[in-house]
Amino acid sequence: MASRFLLALLLLCPTIAQAWTLEGDRIEQPLTTHAGDATRGEAIVGSRTTGLCMLCHALPGGNERQQGNIGPDLTAVGKRLNEAQLRARMVASREINPASKMPGYFKSEGLINVSPTLHGVPILNAQQIEDVVAYLVTQTAR
Ligand code: HEC
């Protein structure tokens, strides 16, 4: 009984991880039913332990010396990209651009060298992705 339950769970896992649809460069459908929280998203983006975005990106308000330039400057990214496009950048950067250097923040499949305790666990969970997207859409000033 228990093993049957586990098997069902295993079979379901890829479905859960792939619970999004990329249309062009957009993912229109939010990953969660709870709306993203821009304040939490800002904390994730600025965090040196969860988001690590500043390793590669610059953003206004951050400490200049700690900002990266591997990826595009995210100042006013909310003007260039809409919510669905930002969600797609977070979830499916490689599907949009196979040469993407942006980590797959919502990927839990096909990764190598992952500690057994982290198997099947994406870098950011669905709610954290939505929080980050909610924050990025507010970045419209230059
Ligand atoms: C290892 C470097 C790296 C990290 C870490 C990283 N990114 Fe990126 N990001 C990139 C690169 C490089 C691009 C340019 C397109 C590509 O390569 O996919 C990019 C593109 C983007 C874009 C599209 C910008 C545009 O103008 O088209 C957004 C939005 C973005 N990143 C947000 C984030 C956020 C939010 C985080 C943290 C949660 C993050 N990135 C972490 C490297 C990174």
Q: Gist?
A:
By secondary structure, the protein is mainly α. The chain has helices at residues 2-17, 38-46, 77-80, 83-91, 93-96, 126-137.
Description:
- The protein has 142 residues and is an all-alpha fold.
- The protein has a single domain, classed as Cytochrome c-like domain (Cytochrome Bc1 Complex, Chain D, domain 2).
- 38% of the residues lie in helices and 0% in strands.
- α4 (83-91) crosses α6.
- 24% of the residues are buried.
- The model has no long low-confidence stretch (mean pLDDT 85).
Number of domains: 1
Rg is 16 Å
- Distance linking N and C termini: 58 Å
What helical percentage do the residues reach? 25-40%
What's the helix-strand series? HHHHHH
**CATH level-two architecture:** Orthogonal Bundle
Mean pLDDT across all amino acids:
85
Assign an overall shape.
globular
> Any idea what the CATH superfamily is called?
Cytochrome c-like domain
User: Can you tell me the CATH topology?
Assistant: Cytochrome Bc1 Complex, Chain D, domain 2
Q: Given the helix and strand composition, which structural class is it?
A: mainly alpha
Write the layout of secondary structure elements.
Layout: H1 2-17, H2 38-46, H3 77-80, H4 83-91, H5 93-96, H6 126-137
Helix pairs in contact: 2-6, 4-6
Heme C (HEC) binds at residues 45, 51-53, 55-57, 70-72, 74, 77, 80, 86, 89, 93, 97, 100-103, 105, 132, 136.
Throw out a few tags for this protein.
142 residues, mainly alpha, Cytochrome Bc1 Complex, Chain D, domain 2, 6 helices, 38% helix, binds heme C
